[in-house]
Amino acid sequence: KRPAGAPDKALAKPVTKVGIIGAGLMASQFALLFLRRLQVPVVITDLDQGRVDKAVAGIRSEIEALVGKGRVSDDEGKRLSALISGTVDKADFADCDWVIEAVFEELGVKQQVFAEVEPHLSETAVLATNTSSLSVEQIGAKLAHPERLVGFHFFNPVAVMPLIEVVKTPQTDDATLATAMRVSKDLKKNAVITRDTPGFVVNRVLAKLLGEAMHAVEQGSSFEDVVAAQRAFGFPMDPFVLLDLVGLKVGAHVLDTHHGAFPDRFFESPALHELAEAGVLLEKDAKGDPKGI
Ligand code: CAA
């Protein structure tokens, strides 16, 4: 039986080439996952050739590391390395049927990168955004075809975390949604379809947990006590290590978005903004000082 809200699987479009917009850490993690699971060409783009080259080299060395650990055979390693490429020319996305963005978490930036790439795409291409808390509908507001945009929200570390939130806007059509569900399955992830509400489902819960941990520190609790208190509940990571993993800038942004949408229920965290600006990590070293200072 089809889960509630899931479209007819037969509508899913084949994905024979993947385009990734952005050449940061998250984009590289996506590239590796798509290469390994879909075994199709993956092209990665950014504004700057240097960033693109660095990302492609980084992905190839990750593949070599997997070969070194015996996780991927020599032959497969060579094949995967040949399947990844980089470009600054959006015209190279013409034959991509799945295009996912992993650029900075800012509405204008995400709107702009999609607007730049859309004219180069085939009519059947699906666009996916990895936003963690922006409105997917607003991200698609400048698209000629917002019906082929879907939210596709991964979690860190991308290779390990089993969940993807597939976010349906009022415009997302069934073929787009069915393709996103098929891609999730091919990536061996569990997908949940969520509505396009701030924070979708996961970050509503996580922003509460991490935001309250920061707020407790701002109100005078020590980092150590907050960690010890949360440890009692068996979470796999302490809240501050998890914030480091998410990235403090992204974490602060997620809290701001939730506070903006639900001001009576979520706090902003000025301390998190300051720490993000200072470029420190919250995880402590053996002496109890924050690592990275
Ligand atoms: N990158 C890639 N792989 C990693 C990794 C990383 N950063 N960290 C761990 N792994 C892999 C390991 O290689 C290992 O793989 P194998 O089993 O194949 O060897 C596997 O994960 C388990 O690793 P460990 O046994 O060393 O570690 P663990 O048991 O402590 O688990 C963890 C690690 C899965 C990351 C666990 O700590 C965890 O689940 N943490 C919570 C993560 C989480 O909540 N993420 C969501 C963040 S929110 C977000 O990302 C999105 C947002 O919108 C803000």
From TrEMBL:
Q: Which residues form the 3-hydroxyacyl-CoA dehydrogenase NAD binding domain?
A: 17-196
Q: Which residues cross the membrane?
A: none
Domain 3-hydroxyacyl-CoA dehydrogenase C-terminal intervals: 199-288
Q: Which domain of life is it from?
A: Bacteria
Q: Which family does it belong to?
A: In the central section; belongs to the 3-hydroxyacyl-CoA dehydrogenase family.
Q: What is this protein called?
A: 3-hydroxyacyl-CoA dehydrogenase NAD-binding domain-containing protein
The record lists the organism as Agrococcus citreus
Describe which stretch of the whole protein the shown chain covers, with first residue, last residue and complete length.
325 to 617 of 713
